Amino acid sequence: MEKFIPYIFFFFILIITGCDPATKPASGLEDEIYIVADLAEFEELRPVLETTFEKIIYTPQPEKLFKLNRISVNEIEKHKNKKNLIIAAPLNSNSTTSQFIKAVVDSASRMKLVETNGFFIKKYDLWAKDQLVMILTSTEMRKLQSDILRNKDDLLNSFQQISDKRLYSSLYNKKYEQEDIEGKLLKDYGWLIFVQSDFKLALNKSDDNFVWLRHSPNSDMERWIFVYWVENASPELLNPDSVKAIRNRMTEKYYRISDDSAYVVIAKDYYTISEINFKGRYAIFTQGLWNLNIKDMSGPFINYTFYDEKSKRLYMLDGSVFAPKYYKRNLIQQMDVTLQSFMTVEELNKERKEELIKAAEEK
């Protein structure tokens, strides 16, 4: 244990001082979380950690939201720049990870964790930019296991949010932005969505309030985004049954194969609905699988539907992926982050509006 004390102290100083802000970008894959834990304790925590972070999504193949990789405390130096890190151990054990946590979390903070029945601490940009390091601890093992399960949605959401932030930064590069298309949508319809350089404006149906953006048509890695809106809509239209009916109606009309003999519908399996806040608005978030009504093709989709009080419009934002040969977890996340770039004209400042409309007029 004596050999370990200086090592712990070194990281303790790093954490509490934070002299220089992390500037080097965090490294590694978006869907990997490194777990710092002693082997025996990790085996006890593994079931609850896997339940929390290795949530399965179907694309239609089962894929994990995150994959867990255990490392020991002695390996932190080698992995300290990873994007996602968790340090986990109960406070009452004598493991090296427990001793490490006691060193990096001061006694006042440990007491507060106990008194408030808390158990996790989040540290952003600790050793790298856009990194999340999370400490999971509690008084003893059973309570730690219970705490993780009780807070699993919040824990998972923390890593999803930082992952979306990193992806947002990588996607929204002005160099690869089609401001002319964004400006046209803003000028004609009063809204915009980020349009990457490799997306095409496939359909622009002003008479039907439907816009379709398409990536790599007729390839083995297609991505589709559509925006649909209902003018002078009633807020009562915002309900799960209407959302499903509207999406099926629009995809039957516009997502058809070349000979017009088949169209896209929502698959019965793995369809989920949840209520969320979308940029300050109540929204219904749906996700699941789409397939052709003749069952020959399928893939994942996500959908945000909300009512905008100022414009009195019901908006539907939808992203789909067709990539049968590829791992699709990261592709559907890209769709999600792109949909979250949606803004109405009221949400843009004057300078940005003028810039985009000018780009559209100059094209």
Task: Summarize the entry for a quick read.
Helices cover 36% and strands 28% of the residues.
Number of domains: 2
What fraction of residues sit in β-strands? 25-35%
Count of DSSP strands: 17
Helix content: 25-40%
**What's the CATH first level of the largest domain?**
Alpha Beta
Rg measurement, Å: 24 Å
CATH topology of the largest domain: Protein Transport Mog1p, Chain A
SSE sequence, one letter per element: HEHEEEHEHHEEHHHEEEEHEEEEEHEH
What would you call the shape? Answer: elongated
Number of helices: 11
Tell me the CATH superfamily of the largest domain: Mog1/PsbP, alpha/beta/alpha sandwich
Question: Given the helix and strand composition, which structural class is it?
Answer: alpha+beta
**Describe the biggest sheet?**
8 strands, antiparallel
Low-confidence stretches: 1-10, 12-19
CATH architect. name of the largest domain: 3-Layer(aba) Sandwich
Euclidean distance between termini CA atoms: 68 Å
**Mean of the pLDDT scores?**
90
Report on the architecture of this protein:
This protein has 363 residues and is of the alpha+beta class. The protein has helices spanning 5-17, 39-53, 76-79, 96-104, 107-115, 141-150, 152-171, 179-189, 240-254, 329-339, 350-362, and strands at residues 32-36, 56-58, 62-64, 67-71, 84-88, 120-124, 132-136, 191-192, 199-205, 210-215, 222-230, 264-266, 272-278, 281-292, 298-308, 313-322, 343-344. It folds into two domains: 5-170, Chitobiase, domain 2 (2-Layer Sandwich); 175-362, 3-Layer(aba) Sandwich (Protein Transport Mog1p, Chain A), CATH 3.40.1000. The strands form four sheets. Strands 9, 10, 11, 12, 13, 14, 15 and 16 form an eight-stranded antiparallel beta sheet that branches. Strands 4-1-5-7-6 form a five-stranded mixed beta sheet, sandwiched between helices. The radius of gyration is 24 Å and the shape is elongated. 31% of the residues are buried.
